[in-house]
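Many introductory courses stop at the sequence. We go one step further.
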Amino acid sequence: MKVVFITRSMEAGGAERVIAQLVKYMTEKKTECAIITLNNGPAAYELPAATVLHAIGKVSQNRRLDKILKYGEVRRLVQAIKPDIVLAMPEEIGIFVIPALWGTGIPVIISERNNPRVMPWRKGSRLFRRLMYPFATGFVFQTDQARDFFPLHIRNKSIVLPNPLDLGRLPKPFCGAKRNEIVGVGRMNKQKNFPLLIRAFALFYENHPDYVLTIYGEGELQEELEKLARGLLPEAAVSFPGVTSELLEKIRGAAMFVLSSDYEGMPNVVIEAMAMGVPVISTDCPSGGPGALIKDGSNGLLVPVGDEIALSAAMARLADSKVLPEALGKNASNIGKELDVKIVGKNWMSYLNQHCLD
């Protein structure tokens, strides 16, 4: 089998990490893989030496002309590679690839990576998705909730597959006393709702002044978030270190990890935190990714979206117990066995094989 992956870029991101893990696994299984990215830029993830990365980049300074020319470039590259199947992710790339490969006869699988009620951002793009999706060969969804958003003719040719986890990427289990630190991670945008995390932590901090909050990431709302934190908390109580290449090392020794998002797909960082045995609190947000990973009270804690009081109470519940964090962390670590790329990757390959060219 020869597979072409098409995505925005191979810079740091959830879909990009999944592609890197799948390519590594498939290459080990003697599957030939190539990657086409619409944007130019270095890969943030290590790729097998045999994997060719075709970065198209900007073709024209005119936005509309650039898109039109990219249709042609994607078509040219795919026809030159002659794959048995194309896997496009995330959703906005899928709706781009279908018309680009129209008439080639090459099967196209689209992988949705977020809440389909919200993504793609533009209403026109969501309308275009309705027009294009019936022409795709198949679909991979992360959760039942995301799949069930779509009509029957889409669901009937789809499969629900979780994100794979490369266990070899995880650091060794943490030994010793955990830091009194709550960690959040993500792009500083509206989706991640870090104001909720900061406000909830401010409530929690009133009775737990020995704790600190650390938010890793960057984005357009960083200045606004720093201003909010300064207005609610002492300067030393909250830090914004930016992006780090040692994220997993930073997370594994923390008392807890918190996801405060309004919506998500299946967050890789939650999977990794759980696999390392870090107690996780998450909003029970659409499209059901955290809810699919976390059994509330057993391997993590779920709170309603946007509820700072419930989130603060969940933080206190962990901080005030010696037994609960250890129990949640121990149960959470089992997610590593369930989502091991050797298991999940095999299911991805099986689905792609079913839809390959004869």
